[in-house]
Write a structure and sequence with these properties.
It is an enzyme of class 2 (transferase). Its EC number is 2.7.11.1. It catalyses: L-seryl-[protein] + ATP = O-phospho-L-seryl-[protein] + ADP + H(+); L-threonyl-[protein] + ATP = O-phospho-L-threonyl-[protein] + ADP + H(+). The protein folds into two domains: 242 residues, Transferase(Phosphotransferase) domain 1 (Transferase(Phosphotransferase), domain 1, Orthogonal Bundle), CATH 1.10.510.10; 97 residues, Transferase(Phosphotransferase) domain 1 (Transferase(Phosphotransferase), domain 1), CATH 1.10.510.10. Helix content is 40%, strand content 7%. The chain is built from twelve helices and seven strands. Strands 1-2-3 form a three-stranded antiparallel β-sheet.
Length: 432
């Protein structure tokens, strides 16, 4: 059939149920990816059947399908430019958006990791390996007979924390894996690196730098190479500044997507919109000061389709009141909406920030307390003569109330009749 098949140097990736190789088909003169199942491994046949079941029901330009030579894969270059990485991230997000929101039956990939993202000749990202994919049941749909509880496979660093406790498959799990991939792509670090352990993972590493306002120091230094060349070129101060602004937004998205709590993660539909916005803003600003700047990019059909869908921001994200997204969702009772809005207002008042960042203020505060309370509190609150220890304790209590009121789950929010006495108690502790 072909040559250069089962050679170690042609191995793309190894999974639980088989391996994927680059194979050159002589007759068609194309390079393709071939998956070889290990049928001696228990569950491999079921994985093969599951993959066939999923692939026959989905069609998307960012998903790798069985081919007879129409889809080519290529070896990834040693270095990808900033825009090329962003394009690939958008490709993967578009594939997940299609699976989660635009299939007849919502589908969860359940095994998103670097070895399952392949590139074609145009460096278009394609999601592959649907051996662990699950169909999500919904009203008026026939549910699949595949088990919905995920058995952990492969590197744990890409697996959503809730799966470790036996939670059922959900779109939240794919979003978590995507968040880790996004952080890897722009830090140049692997979540499996030796520097990461139980106490310090990639998510925490980037989060700490985010709070300190340090982006360029944790970013892959090769991102400052224009055009994806293998050796450094002279980058203007303006170019570095634009990269830094975009990295802030990208790291925010990655941090939120890889939040430990499933409810704290972004919907992949919103991720596609945000990443497209980052890309478009970057190119527009870059071309405004240097129309001939050497940034190579490409336009793919999937991006065009996504942009057509994304002409307006997602419904919950009104740019005039982004942090108050509970309004307009059409869910719950108005008293829960009021408590949510109060919680956001309380967090704003004591951080001095508005809910205008991609990382909403609820997540921003929740990730910082109690250890980093002085870093997120409005600096003007710390300049007066009250006892520092006492003030910090009160700030922590206030932030805890704000977080409890703005919880994503309505049933978990603090009732307003409990909020009032707690705030009175905090005030009394501060007054002489």
């Amino acid at each position: 059939m072909g040559r250069s098949g089962h050679l170690p140097e042609n191995l793309i990736g190894v999974g639980t149920f088989g391996s994927v190789y680059k194979v050159f088909i002589d007759r068609a003169q194309v390079l393709v990816a071939v998956k070889v199942f290990n049928l001696l491994h228990q569950g491999s046949l079921k994985s093969f059947i599951a993959e066939c079941e999923v692939l026959r029901s989905i069609r998307h330009s960012n998903i790798l399908h069985p081919t007879v030579g129409t889809q080519k894969v290529r070896s990834a270059p040693k270095n990808l430019s900033f825009v090329q990485r962003l394009d690939i991230a958008i490709d993967v997000a578009c594939a997940l958006d299609y699976l989660h929101n635009h299939c007849d039956t919502p589908t969860v990939h359940c095994d998103l990791k670097p070895s399952n993202i392949l590139l074609d000749n145009d460096l278009t990202g394609r999601v592959s390996d649907f051996g662990l994919a699950r169909f999500l049941s919904k009203p008026n749909n026939i549910s699949t007979n595949l088990p919905s509880v995920i058995k952990l496979r492969g590197p744990v660093s890409y697996v959503a924390p809730e799966y470790e406790t036996g939670s059922e498959a959900s779109t939240y799990g794919d979003v978590y894996s995507f968040g880790i991939l996004l952080l890897e792509m722009f830090t140049g670090k692997k979540s499996t690196d030796d520097m990461f352990s139980y106490r310090l993972n990639l998510h925490k590493f980037v989060s700490m730098s985010y709070f300190e306002g340090v982006f360029s120091e944790i970013a892959d230094p090769r991102l400052l190479l224009q055009g994806g060349n293998s050796r450094p070129s002279k980058c203007s101060v303006k170019f570095k500044s634009e990269i830094g602004q975009c990295l802030r937004s990208i790291f925010e998205i990655g941090i939120v997507c890889s939040s430990e709590s499933p409810r704290g993660r972004m919907d992949i539909h919103n991720v596609v919109f945000e990443l497209n916005s980052v890309r478009d803003d970057f190119l527009n600003r870059l071309h405004s000061y240097s129309p001939t700047v050497g940034v190579r990019s490409r336009s793919c059909s999937s991006c065009i389709v996504c942009r057509r869908r994304m002409k307006e921001p997602p419904a919950w994200r009104s740019w005039s009141n982004r942090g108050y997204r509970q309004y307009g969702t059409g869910s719950g009772e108005r008293k829960y909406w009021d408590v949510y809005s109060f919680g956001i207002l309380l967090l704003e008042m004591f951080t001095g920030k508005g809910p205008t960042d991609l990382m909403n203020i609820h997540n921003f505060v929740e990730m910082a307390i109690p250890e980093r309370v002085t870093e997120i509190a409005d600096s003007r609150l710390l300049q007066r003569g009250t006892n520092d220890t006492q003030k910090n304790e009160c700030l922590i209590s206030i932030f805890e109330i704000g977080i409890a009121c703005s919880d994503g789950a309505q049933s978990d929010r603090m009732s307003i009749d409990r909020v009032v006495p707690r705030l009175h108690s905090i005030r009394d502790r501060l007054l002489p």
